[in-house]
Structures are given as C-alpha cells and as structure tokens.
Specification:
Blueprint lengths: L4 H25 L4 H17 L4 H26 L6 H10 L8 H23 L11 H22 L3
Length: 163
C-alpha cells in the first residue's frame, strides 16, 4: 500500500529527530535514555497505524527482535564476563523493528555494524592500537542503520517488493 507523501515527511522528520537525539546522547554519555527509546517505539507504532499496515504483526516482530538481542547480550556476557551490547541498544533495536519491514532488520544491522567497525578502525589509525579496546556507543550506528533502512523501504521498497 502506498503511503501518503505528507505522512512520510512528518514520519521522517520525527524519526530523524529522535535518532539524532539518541546519537548525541549516546556519544556523550554512552547511554540511551529510556524516554528516547520509548519515543522511538511509540512513534514507530504510530507510523505503522497511520500507514495502515499490520501493526499487530509489527509488534510481534519487535518483541521477537527484543528477545533475540537480549539473548545475544546475555549469551555474550555468559561467555566473556563482559557486557558487549548495552541494554539501551537492545531496547533501541526492538523499537527500531517497529519502524521497518522485518526483511530490513539484517540490512539495519549490517549498516550499523559496518559503520561501527569503520569508526573503530579510524580511531585505531588516528590514536593507535589502544583505541581498539575503548568502549564505543552503538546507538549512533543503530540510528544510522535505521534511518537508511527506513529510507530504503520508503523510497525504493516497492521496487524490491518489501513495501
């Protein structure tokens, strides 16, 4: 179903604003506040309802994504004794699943992971090998992945059969 252009503009601005706020806060404080994750989730659900999509299925996918990423977080901790994926990142990935077609979740993760690896690589080149052991906030990279995945779905998704 084709979504009205005005809806896409408003949704895009809302999404961009929330993602920018998450990126700035996470880079500065290495935490994604629950109110920002809640705003991302509620606005994503609202977008699905206004775009007349199957919001119940989107909620189910988001809950599944949340469970999978929490399990990955927990498994990593059990194996290494260290937290690799913050709880705010897990919540953000669950909220992100409300914004995009489930087929695009791997695209979101690919973009986020690649951008984060390039960032760390750049840090290592600029500051030396010790930079590879520094904590890196993942929220800004999830934000980039979600923003690009959402735009991909909205603007060329119908040509890919995912809109």
């Amino acid at each position: 179903m084709e979504t009205d252009g005005a809806i896409l503009i408003v949704a895009g601005l809302v999404l961009a604003g929330i993602l920018a706020a998450i990126a700035v806060v996470d880079f500065r404080r290495q935490v994604i506040p629950d109110p920002l994750n809640m705003a991302l989730a509620v606005s994503g659900l609202g977008f699905q309802l206004v775009a007349q999509r199957d919001a119940a299925m989107q909620l189910l996918i988001a809950a599944l994504a949340l469970a999978v990423f929490w399990a990955l977080r927990r498994g990593h901790f059990l194996l290494t004794g260290r937290i690799g994926l913050g709880l705010g990142d897990v919540k953000m990935l669950g909220a992100a699943a409300l914004w995009i077609n489930p087929v695009l979740l791997p695209v979101l993760l690919f973009i986020a992971s690649t951008a984060a690896l390039l960032f760390v690589g750049g840090q290592v080149v600029a500051a030396g090998p010790a930079a590879a052991r520094m904590r890196v906030p993942f929220g800004p990279f999830i934000a980039l992945g979600l923003g690009l995945s959402w735009m991909l779905e909205q603007f060329i998704g119908s040509n890919l059969g995912i809109s």
